[in-house]
Amino acid sequence: NVRFKTLTFSVAKDRSAKISMTGSARSFNALAVESSALAGNENFKRAIFSGIAADKSGVVSFVLNVLKNKT
User: Fold this and answer.
1) Per the confidence metrics, is the pTM higher than 0.85?
2) Which of 6, 50, 55, 68 is deepest in the core (most CB within 10 A)?
3) Which residues are CB-contacts of 30 (< 8 A; sequence separation ≥ 6)?
4) Are 55 and 61 in contact (CB under 8 A)?
């Protein structure tokens, strides 16, 4: 129900990682489920969705920025 189209990441000297993705979801509910899954993942310090917009068919586009905990 959620697809990611692009992925970029960088790793800092302290081994934390910044991950940026763009994607689309079939609906706002599908995006909410993805957000909940990320929030419950202890590997991620922060996951922020932005640029959320729905097209005429209801497909929701978004940008996701994630800060991954140090490994």
Assistant:
1) yes
2) 68
3) 1, 2, 60
4) yes
